[in-house]
Amino acid sequence: MSWGAVIVRVVVGGLFVGHGLQKLNGSFNGPGLEGTEKMMESLEMEPAKTNALAVSLAETGAGAAIVAGAATPLAAGGLIASMVTAIRKVHAKNGVWNSNGGFEYNAVLIAVLTALAAEGPGKASFDALFGKARWGAKGALTALALGIGGSIAAVEMGRRTAEKKSAESGGDLGGTAEG
């Protein structure tokens, strides 16, 4: 699967780089960091600025690592975390199918990244230079654990920070209190 892995790495990793750059600096008609921060606020992913920068850099950097076939399970884990969080915060409520705003596409990306972490980036990769052209089940489980764990941590941090922010403002998020 060596050349097949290269094709998957370049397409999937390259698209993640583009997606990350959309968030980071507005490339490819993206929202840029300011728009991404607003999205994070709307999703209660506080602190929004930190989460916006984190997801932008994670998608860009991990996408580039996937293209290069470098630290594949770690890179896949970072991207899986982004996709799991997108499912949890945006798509799950819409069901499976992408046509309804569901998580179909995210699930496919998670499956591809998990398979890539298991089968490895192939012989034409940085990992192969260090004897890791194939990672096996350990690579897949590492990527999934990092992805799911990263999502849980990000969403929980967002929830707790949003609650703290609300409590500090007296629970008033812009409304008026009438007695």
From TrEMBL:
GO terms for cellular component: plasma membrane. It is found in: Cell membrane. Its main location: membrane. The keyword Endoplasmic reticulum does not apply. This is Putative oxidoreductase. Belongs to the DoxX family. Keywords: Cell membrane, Membrane, Transmembrane, Transmembrane helix. It comes from Paramicrobacterium humi. It comes from the Bacteria. It is a multi-pass membrane protein.
